[in-house]
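A common beginner's mistake is to predict each chain separately and then try to dock the pieces by hand. The better habit, illustrated here, is to supply every component at once so that their relative placement is modeled jointly.
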Amino acid sequence: MKEINEEVTPKKSLNFIEQIIEKDLEEGKNGRRVQTRFPPEPNGYLHIGHAKAICLDFGIAEKYGGVCNLRFDDTNPTKENMEYVDAIMEDIKWLGFQWKNVYYASDYFQQLWDFAVELIKEGKAYIDEQTPEEIAAQKGTPTIPGTNSPYRDRPIEENLALFDKMNSGELEEGSMVLRAKIDMANPNMHFRDPLIYRIVKTPHHRTGDKWKAYPLYDFAHGQSDFFEGVTHSLCTLEFVSHRPLYDLFIDWLKKGEDLDDNRSRQYEFNKLNLNYTLLSKRNLLALVNEGLVSGWDDPRMPTICGYRRRGYTPESIRMFVDRIGYTLYDALNDMALMESSVREDLNKRATRVSAVVNPVKLIITNYPEGQTEELDAINNPEDLEAGSHKIVFSRELWIEREDFMEDAPKKYFRLTPGNEVRLKNAYIVKCTGCKKDAAGNVQEVYAEYIPLTKTGEPESNRKVKGTIHWVSVSHAIKAEVRMYDRLWKIENPRDELARLQKEEGMTPVEAMKQMINENSLEIRPNCYVEAFLADTKPLDHFQFQRIGYFCTDKDSTPDHLVFNRTVSLKDTWAKLQK
Ligand code: ATP
Ligand code: MG
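With all components supplied together, the output reads:
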């Protein structure tokens, strides 16, 4: 019987990258080595899209006993800095991954320079002095061949001298570029004499002002992979058309040596695109700079540090990435899937506590003034080893305003005059009425408790249809609770951003301002939480019973507790849309 079961249990199938790798290993490619890299540009904080790449790059190396290095693709000094380098490392570690080595593309500036000089000498590269507009105009289209630059056949000596000048500081940015001489009629546009070096005068965060000429992406990435011995260079689909150039530069680098069994190969997978979410560091930087969010780690941001502050766990992010998988097609993933991953994970680990986020006072009129009782509250019914903690019951309690209704419909099982309700972990109470102000707002709710109805007591089995949570007025702590909603009103903000720019001529910031959800943050300054939370530290996870999962914010202090709602208990949003 057992054997049959084992046979029937489906084995998790390999994704297409794993299939490629297993085939390469079988064929003995690269000496049966697997080496990957995660290559962020340090021009911003990592976002959830990067988490997808990280899980693949590091996950593949782990699975096949290989190596994954972290390589900063730092070839653009105007946008990069050490703050981003440090933050990227912190986020990768937090996700639960460890690189073998840290490399920087800037470590290879000399090697790349030497290679470029080599190409000039071989007649495979030339200095072009045209303006970017002129160069663009000669590019042609995929069906119309481009036109050769008038500088294409410049003598080698002249090219060498000008290339030196590009790096000397005496030339203006944009005044000339180095181009590879390939084929201006090639159907692959990336082969039409691609730009490989340009002048940038901003000092570099690692190499200072040593260089003024910087390699462009296509001239740096593949070679860096090759220098390091990367076997599988995994990137997103927009690089498919760059792959032939990736291969060509490596071929040129090795001067035709047979690399068949020992070279870096690029493979592409689909980008993560989440609904109601805008990725891309460029956009996220604009949000920060415009003050539309409080910073890179604003809990509404799709950055790793934003999700962390919001209360997402590394496990929940990895579970989500695992669920969406890797394919060859662009998709728009549902944020609800991410939310269900974090719910599933926090359900296992979050301590259950009581917090009242919209308080009204409930007075138990037959409970003696000044009397208190210590009761047990189970920390997590999903994990009985998590134990329990003490809560205090007394005559005056805070309850949620929505848990009382004076004239309630039939199916309202919470407090309404005449109705009996269980107070979580405590007594059953019968509602007797309320007090209202002149405007009709409920100021206090009244009830009587029914003795012997606590857990384990003779009357505890008395049938009631509703259970509500509460905290004791004189024991609870005031807290600020921050409720978050989606940052964008639009389901696919990436495409809408592009459309507004193209069709309505908006700037990216104008478009963002139009798409942003002004109600994505609701601050509730007057909530009450049970005393157990007095010593909470940032990033502690809790389930506020009946409300959602919350975590302690970094702004929280013992004198002013602040909590972030990570996610509600159920996906109420999806229902509201119907
Ligand atoms: P951004 O536009 O956000 O800056 P990028 O692709 O320029 O993204 P890099 O830092 O250059 O960011 O990328 C590091 C790695 O992360 C690359 O391999 C890239 O393909 C991958 N990556 C970036 N965005 C996503 C995404 N949305 N989904 C999956 N992988 C991504
Ligand atoms: Mg980038």
